[in-house]
């Protein structure tokens, strides 16, 4: 009951972009302890371990993934509640949309930017996801993770190095749960910001299958604006296409392969380098 294992699970089922080959071992642990055992067992045997949440910022190659892919789901990973301090405790498998609604119902403001984000808490911590000028770690009080020695530890926010879309320690540690802070606020204020976020997202971002923003914003110019200026909106490679709504999204027109998406990413990066001297870094995890 503590975990479920599947062999050669198609990753296309676990990515919002709907692309990607099979994962050799797909494992869903229900408890932190089961998660720890899977990681330690694999590490002892030199088997590669990755963690995949909602797959909303993920691009898996068509050849798939060798080794173990852990998907935190069920049990403690899906729990989300308000504690006595008015903080919100959420497991790695909780969707940000869910966290946003738990906060809204409890009259806690500051989580409205998460309303339309398809990813879960684990992924948001891993990459310090953000929107509307707010980032995940702006609201983290502490985080529980499995460290590189295979121990479950609680880290206070001050002990965690955090950058724009990058949390270096989570390359080695795995986030299991976090405690978030917001501000008591009126339903009117929360609803207004919720609506602002929804309207902005609906009017600027595509609804078609994608992995969200493909590139990190470089210093010089927002990546979407740059791709737009390079004239790439609507350009395609097979069934993968740069969104007409937003230049930093690549959408799957149906049946696209990872190879096509990667080909398009390479073309854009080359063009940005050659024409503008800008080195684009991917935000999606490949
Ligand atoms: N722009 C264009 N053409 C385009 C797209 C954008 O000219 O095709 C311009 C916009 O008009 C605006 C500027 O570029 O002046 C920035 O665009 P936007 O406001 O859409 O924000 P962004 O920097 O592209 C960031 C996050 C998004 C997040 C939005 C909303 C990054 C890489 N992206 O986008 O996050 O949803 O802000 O707050 O930081 C994601 O992480 O997957 C993601 C989509």
Count of runs of 4 or more consecutive helical residues = 6
Instruction: State the major sheet.
Output: 5 strands, antiparallel
Small molecules bound: uridine-diphosphate-2(N-acetylglucosaminyl) butyric acid
Mean pLDDT: 97
**β-strand amount:** 25-35%
CA distance, first residue to last residue: 31 Å
How many strands appear in the DSSP assignment? 17
Overall morphology: globular
Radius of gyration: 19 Å
* Strands in their spatial order, largest beta sheet: 5-6-12-10-11
Q: Which structural category do the helix and sheet elements fall into?
A: alpha+beta
Which residue ranges are poorly predicted, with pLDDT under 50 across at least 5 consecutive positions?
none
Helices and strands, in N-to-C order? Answer: EEHEEEEHEHEEEEEEHEHEEEH
Helix content: 25-40%
């Amino acid at each position: 009951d503590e975990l479920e294992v599947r062999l050669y699970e198609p990753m296309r089922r676990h990515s919002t972009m709907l692309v990607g080959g099979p994962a050799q071992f797909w494992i869903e642990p229900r408890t932190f302890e089961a998660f720890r055992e899977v990681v330690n067992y694999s590490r002892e045997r030199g088997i590669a371990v990755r963690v995949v949440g909602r797959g909303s910022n993920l691009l898996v190659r068509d050849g798939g993934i060798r080794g173990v892919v852990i998907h935190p789901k069920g049990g403690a990973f899906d729990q989300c509640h308000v504690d006595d301090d008015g903080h919100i405790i959420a497991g790695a498998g909780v969707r940000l949309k869910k966290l946003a609604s738990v906060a809204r119902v409890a009259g806690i403001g500051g989580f409205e930017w998460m309303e339309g984000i398809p990813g879960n808490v684990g992924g948001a911590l891993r990459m310090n996801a953000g929107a509307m000028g707010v980032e995940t770690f702006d609201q983290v009080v502490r985080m529980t993770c499995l460290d590189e020695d295979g121990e479950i530890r609680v880290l206070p926010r001050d002990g965690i190095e955090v950058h724009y879309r990058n949390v270096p320690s989570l390359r080695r540690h795995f986030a299991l749960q976090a405690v978030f802070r917001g501000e008591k606020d009126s339903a009117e204020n929360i609803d207004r910001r919720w609506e602002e976020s929804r309207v902005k997202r609906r009017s600027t971002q595509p609804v078609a299958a994608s992995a969200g923003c493909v590139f990190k914003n470089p210093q010089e110019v927002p990546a979407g604006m740059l791709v737009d200026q390079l004239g790439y909106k609507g350009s395609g490679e097979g069934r993968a296409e740069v969104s007409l709504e937003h230049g930093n999204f690549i959408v799957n027109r149906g049946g696209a392969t990872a190879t096509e998406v990667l080909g398009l990413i390479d073309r854009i990066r080359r063009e940005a380098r050659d024409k503008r001297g800008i080195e684009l870094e991917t935000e999606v995890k490949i």
